[in-house]
Design goal:
Helix content is 74%, strand content 0%. By secondary structure, the chain is mainly α. The protein has one domain.
Length: 220
Amino acid sequence: MNAYDNRCHQMFIRAREYMAQSIDDFVAGGVARQMYADLQTGIPTFEQKAFAHGAGLSEERQGTRTRSDTRDALTQALELIRNAARVMGVLEQFPRPPQNDDEALLQLADVYAAHALPLKAQFIAHELPPNFLEELAADKADFQAAIVDQANARGDHIAARQELKDARDYCLARIRGLDGLVNIRYANNPGKLAEWTAASHIERAPKRAKPEMPPPSTPA
């Protein structure tokens, strides 16, 4: 949940407690009681969606880290081959790995593999491990999988965010409906109206403190 979601959640709890204490004042089978019942079921749904959203956000962040780690591993594998190619005098066949272009990096891995295969024995003679091409293929596959996993996690996170918003809006709609009914029921009871106003109020976000300005300098 973001800060606004948190403040809404706190308001939902306050409004629910207010209605729990006041429900006997409202008509049995009436609209206020139904809206209160809707709010009672809406709050747990909102909380469940908030948990799912938090889990989705965590998975997306983990996916981003994994994507970065596998990108680095593939880049390092390419750089190792490129360093050996430099010593062997075939550097022109192995272009420098690109920056900030994952698709180009994956394509370059294929170029390296194709150019290195006929020279495999020479690369091994220049201290690359015997399975360096297999390791390159594994690093590429890991990176591709990480890209897919991150995209899926991001999609799940976006969906969870929308579901959380829908659950929040559902509760807010019930609060708005209750607001009108509470004002009717307690039209002649300013104390109860004041309590409801306090309970159903969404707190404002705290203002950031402005940095203190240094005092003006005085001429010498």
